[in-house]
UniProtKB/TrEMBL annotation:
It comes from the Eukaryota. Coiled coil: none annotated. GO terms for molecular function: protein kinase A regulatory subunit binding. GO terms for cellular component: cAMP-dependent protein kinase complex. Pfam families: AKAP28. InterPro entries: AKAP, AKAP_28. The gene is Akap14. PANTHER family: A-KINASE ANCHOR PROTEIN 14. This is AKA14 protein.
Amino acid sequence: TKSTIKNIQWITGNNFTVERGQQQIEEYISTWDVHISWLHCSEFLQEEELEHSKRYHYRVCWSVPTRRKPIPRATASVYFVIEISKIKPATSPVEVFFTLESSRLIHRPGQHLFREKWLKDIIESKIILMERL
């Protein structure tokens, strides 16, 4: 079966706050099709001032703790950027994009289907690296 690409209604620039941005990211990732065993936490990292926009950087850290290993051996991070234009009207929705740790590919909500396998691959590669060291 083909999965549908899900998105949310993103906030407008004039209604944006750092806290609201984090809430919206949480709302968006709740649309992802990931197994219930995955847990995550999100945090605001920094604000970046650019000539034509402001960018707000967030990180969502994912792991699969278990009864036997409540502290996971490795985690996978997804980095979000919420960008507010200084040129577009303040009533325009914010621009949002995200990247996965160890990848430069930029994903946009509503345009890309998130895959749980991406998180698994990051964690597996970290565990392999730790075992080699």
